[in-house]
Amino acid sequence: MAKYILRRIVYMLITLIIIATATFFLMKLLPGSPFSSIGAKLTEEQEAILLEKYGLDEPLPVQYAKYMVNMAQGDLGVSFQYNNRPVTDIILDRLGPSAHLGAQALIIGTILGIILGMIAAIRHNTWVDYSSNILAVIGISIPSFVFAGLLQYYFAVKWQIFPPSFWEGPIYTVLPTIALMIFPMAVCARFMRTEMLEVLGSDYIELARAKGVKSTSIMFKHAMRNALIPVITVLGPMTVSLMTGTLVIEQIFAVPGLGEQFVRSINENDYPVIMGTTMLFSVLFISIILIVDLLYGLIDPRIRVSGGKD
Amino acid sequence: MSPVLEVKNLHVHFETYGGTVQAVRGVNFELNEGETLAIVGESGSGKSVTSKSLMGLIPRPNGKIVEGEILFENQDLAKLKEKELQKMRGKDISMIFQDPMTSLNPTMKVGKQIMEVLMLHQKLSKKEAKKRAIELLDLVGIPFPDKRVDQYPHQFSGGMRQRVVIAIALACNPKVLIADEPTTALDVTIQAQILELMKDIQKKMNTSIIFITHDLGVVANVADRVAVMYAGKIVEIGTVDDIFYNPKHPYTWGLIGSMPTVDSQEEKLYAIPGTPPDLLYPPKGDAFALRSNYALAIDFEEAPPMFKISDTHSAATWLLHEDAPNIEPPKAVKLRMEGMAKGAGGDMNGDVNNE
After folding, report:
1. Which residues of B fall within a CB distance of 8 Å from A204?
2. What would the pLDDT profile of B53-64 be if each residue is shown by its tens digit?
3. Total domain count for chain A?
4. Nearest C-alpha of chain A: how many angstroms from B231?
5. Domain with A205 in it: what CATH number?
6. How much is the ipTM here?
7. Phi then psi for B294, rounded to 5 degrees?
């Protein structure tokens, strides 16, 4: 097991290097220069000084090599925009709200989705099933920013139940969380329903019934675990789409999170912040995939990895 | 001897989009203590539905017992509520399924699946249940039961899994065990082992077994009595000897005639012509009449009643009516019957030879 995890971590590092390289060169293709958007007009001379200061006058391969060496040592550089604040500082500052929002949406969405899917499966072919199905289709096909706008309009502007934006306490998290969790909820509900129906029709459930096990125990002890395996598969990609979802949702609700910062940095050609944020997202993505793979083994003994078997 | 289980005029229907499927259309039989009753018939003849309705396991809400009684220990199982059925299932009546590869929960330890029944019905503590689970695994012939108890189904072979399923079924010493084609999915060598195991355990526990199969070889090996089902009805019932040496119903003739033997002289295997009737629209009269060479005019008008041939043997065919012409079974079937009578020492008296 330890060997397996170690091997996976090596692969992760290779993936990260590839991502860093690709992002670095792609980012340099962005139009404009980091200093063109600063309010005051710079003379050519001043701009040259700034470029030299940040090492942007050197040939690209040299810049790339320097960046990679620094990053390996944990130094992500300083921002071009915020009075030379280190990128790590900016990211750490912004990480809190994003992580909070993302985790809240993912956990609530997944749990609600699983419950909804199970209820739909148990009440198969009744109005409960049909309405949960319609909800799921709506949740999957309508993008989160549409919900965000609607939620803002009705709950914040019209009925004034929740604040429309900003990030100043638990009540502020309600609307963005709902907007963000609808997609994972819908996906989970659909998967869970299909899987539950399949599992409930299987021989081992009939055997459990023949043993005299109560219907509720059959649902939770026998069926749920087996139905969860494919749901976990979608959990990985879903988390990823949730992260990209936060980019838009944070803009709409003015949440001071990473996503909002990321979009702004791209507009401002703030190379170190773009790189730093991209790397953070990548690390998260790759870790989630690893965690999902390890989760399989926890739930399904057949997929459990045996150490050292190559 | 009073019967353990008595089924009277059982009718089971399924509501489908196409209409009502009359899967079981008036089944009567009784099961005595310690005996093995084999129910044989083609796919779709209603054998499995009959056995599942005994346990209240017919898929609801589509399937329903519309008529009839299932008498077990002074109560009618057909009228019990789901809650009461749950208490009975696994304790008084339990079941072995056809495919051991899919009938165990893949994400639950084998021991836990056995312990579940014990803790549910016998209210054993976790520790006691585990001890008993190990004993049961030992009883069904699984080596190293104390290690195996903590393993998952995928670590067992097909035959071993069927042994585990048997252990689950026997955990609470049920009075009736329903085995729904328990050997069909297994290799022939493993089949023989599982049959031996079941016979062995039956002797030890005095369980009554309903053995559903379409393998007449297995029937000859395990059964005391045989019920032949066709189109949702029992068409002939009797002891093994009655059915194999003195069959009266043309359908039973067909079944026996289509059984291959080692010393078959004909090159072509006999098959019953035609297909079973559509139970959405069961035919008027005798359901087998259309496929039978011996059908009488009345067969197309009125369903035959059960005619008693001896104390143990009866069959539902108009051929047994006193006005019916005297018809002998076809030659191929006669040859087969004679062949079996000659070779009877092997299969039929297997028990005697073993002792």
Report:
1. 102-106
2. 999 888 877 888
3. 1
4. 24
5. 1.10.3720.10
6. 0.83
7. -110, 15
